[in-house]
Specification:
Elements lengths: L13 H25 L2 H27 L13 H30 L6 H23 L6 H4 L3
């Protein structure tokens, strides 16, 4: 027996996603500054991760908007390729960031630096709070639909 239902699952507004994206970007900038000032590769790594997420979200949004354009005389297949190009750019950036972090880690093993642990922990706590606020913003307004989770 097939079960159909028609109801609103709750949607997250674009402004909420934009707010979370800006919060994530700000968190990344704070972590870059904190990582450089404290000498913490962990903070720089997390900053790279957050900055990568922020750029990825923005890039994906613009690629999605471009991909929605209708085909024309010059682009008979439309603009769907924009999403593939955005994914390639994102993956390339992640590989580049990873290589940089591996290189830095090797340098740190060769000649360790003193880390300002107080500053590092303070910035890390800020990052934790920012991630928690982002999670709460994204979860607020979502509606769990148990009927959708069951097999038809």
């Amino acid at each position: 027996m097939e079960h159909h239902h028609n109801h609103d699952h709750g949607t997250l507004s674009a402004s909420k996603y934009l707010g979370v994206t800006f919060l994530n970007g700000f968190n990344a900038l704070v972590e870059v500054a904190g990582g450089m000032m404290s000498g913490s590769l962990s903070l720089l790594s997390d900053a790279a991760h957050n900055l990568g997420d922020t750029v990825s979200i923005a890039l994906s949004y613009f690629a999605w908007k471009i991909a929605g354009k209708e085909k024309d005389v010059h682009r008979t297949y439309g603009y769907k390729r924009a999403e593939i190009i955005a994914a390639f750019v994102n993956a390339s950036a992640l590989v580049g960031i990873s290589l940089f972090l591996v290189f830095e880690a090797i340098q740190r093993f060769r000649s360790p630096e003193r880390i300002d642990s107080g500053l590092m922990i303070g910035v890390a706590v800020f990052g934790l709070v920012a991630n928690f606020v982002s999670m709460m913003l994204l979860e607020k307004g979502k509606v769990r639909c148990f009927a959708c989770d069951t097999a038809a």
